[in-house]
Design brief:
461 residues; Beta-Lactamase; Helix Hairpins; Heat Shock Protein 90; 3 domains
Length: 461
């Protein structure tokens, strides 16, 4: 038997606990009260039968004392008593006298079955229905007889039915209490849910902002205030980090640019090997260092990018522009680039163009002759596929192709950051990016972004 799953929300937990507590308390009170009520009803009926028997016995005793024998005769004596449900039975089981309703019936109890002087028993049959029967052996006028009385237990049955009806009502009341507690807890925790939603928005936006959530209680207000203070600290830290990146960009790339210029000048003045070859190699490595520094700074800025102010843009136009940039690169002149389809997403056009340029340039570098970019919008998602007819991605690199400094054998001259930058930009836009090899050969990079609602506000030719 599988284990029951515990409720995961406070609303469900408190609601179920309140229901169970209310159910136990209400059902215990209802059933306990019902049982007491039924016991009291049974006692009242039993006492009434006892009094009935005592009254008949007293009447018979008075008549015998007066010299009369009310039980004499050959037939059943119809008792003149207005009371109903009485039989006087001989020890042989013969009905000597009875009230009108029992005159033609067999003895209610056989005298020989009476366990003691007085016996009470409950019977349920077609003759008497659900009734309480009480018999007592007495001696009247020197003759032993049994005075037997019967009374309906209809009131007891009504009490039992009422008990079960109240138990069902208690169940409904317990459900209502559980729901009321769950709703109350839900309302009390709405500010917490608002804080969570706001925190999620901030996390997706990649930039800290104030929660700005009104809290009805002092405890929640204090929590929101402390979280805002924490976000302020994080924001200040990121601002300092961004400032450091800007300063590092200037301080790092400026001397690299100066060194490149000096090396280039020196290379022109030294034309004989091995000096010219060493200077050319140093200039190439310095150029690669410059690209690596630029890509690292771009990746860091992408990780700290602010998603506020995103606008609806045509991703098809972005892909067309990125493809045009790749076509202008002399390294990719022989490559055929084809872009088809369109879709509207919300985002930063410059960032998305950089991501598309990186992916298309990477495909152009590894393809044999062509790169296909297709865009389609379905079910609220825009899918961008970049495929090539090259050898594909080595299987051992597929899991880490979007990690920093991942290079294949043919990527030795690259920085290994282009795919990581593209993946970070896609993540900033709430999308996903995957890499696979096509069955017919070549790599396939797939991007999925949330489709935007509304008109395109930013369009690139």
């Amino acid at each position: 038997m599988p284990a029951l799953t515990r409720p995961t929300t406070l609303r469900a937990r408190f609601g179920i606990r309140a229901f169970l507590v209310a159910l136990v308390v209400l059902e215990s009170a209802t059933i306990g009260t019902g049982l007491v009520w039924q016991a009291r009803t049974m006692r009242v009926v039993d006492d009434g039968l006892t009094q009935h028997i005592r009254s008949v016995e007293a009447d018979l005793t008075r008549e015998f004392a007066a010299g009369l024998d009310p039980l004499a005769g050959t037939g059943v004596v119809i008792l003149p008593s207005p009371e109903r449900g009485i039989q006087i039975v001989s020890t042989s089981g013969e009905v000597l006298a009875a009230t009108g309703s029992l005159a033609e019936r067999a003895p209610i109890l056989v005298p020989s079955d009476l366990e003691s002087t007085t016996t009470s028993t409950i019977v349920t049959d077609s003759r008497f229905g659900h009734s309480l029967v009480k018999g007592e052996l007495v001696e009247v006028g020197g003759r032993p007889v049994a005075i037997e009385a019967i009374a309906s237990l209809g009131d007891l049955d009504a009490a039992a039915r009422s008990t079960w009806m109240l138990a069902a009502a208690a169940m409904g009341l317990a459900v209502a209490i559980g729901l009321a507690v769950a709703i109350s807890v839900d309302r009390a925790l709405r500010p917490v849910s608002a804080l969570a939603r706001r925190a999620t928005e901030i996390a997706e936006g990649r930039r800290p902002m104030r929660l700005s959530v009104s809290a009805p209680t002092a405890e929640l207000h204090d929590l929101a205030t402390r979280l805002d203070e924490l976000l302020d600290v994080i924001s200040q830290t990121l601002d300092r980090e961004q400032s450091f990146l800007d300063d590092a960009s200037h301080e790092l790339r400026t001397p690299i640019a100066i060194a490149r210029a000096e090396l280039d000048l020196a290379r022109r003045s030294v034309r004989e090997p091995p000096g010219s070859e060493a200077l050319a190699s140093a200039l190439e490595e310095l150029t690669r260092l410059d690209r690596t520094a630029a890509d690292l700074l771009l990746l860091a800025r992408a990780r700290a990018a602010d998603t506020n102010g995103f606008t609806a843009i045509d991703i098809g136009a972005i892909a067309q522009r990125a493809a045009a940039d790749v076509r202008r690169d002399p390294r990719h002149t022989p490559v055929r680039l084809h872009v088809s389809g369109d879709g509207v997403v919300e985002g930063n056009p410059e960032a998305l163009e950089r991501a598309m340029s990186n992916l298309i340039a990477n495909a152009a570098t590894h393809c044999r002759s062509k790169v296909e970019v297709t865009i389609a919008e379905t079910d609220g998602r825009v899918r961008v596929s970049v495929s090539d007819d090259g050898p594909g991605i080595p299987d051992d690199l597929l899991p880490t192709v979007f990690d920093r400094f991942t290079r294949g054998s043919s990527q030795a001259t690259g920085t290994g950051l282009g795919m990581a930058i593209a993946a970070q930009i896609v993540a900033n836009h709430g999308g996903t990016i995957t890499a696979a090899n096509r069955p017919e050969g070549g790599a396939l990079i797939t991007i999925e972004l949330p489709a935007a609602e509304g008109p395109v506000l930013t369009r690139h030719p």
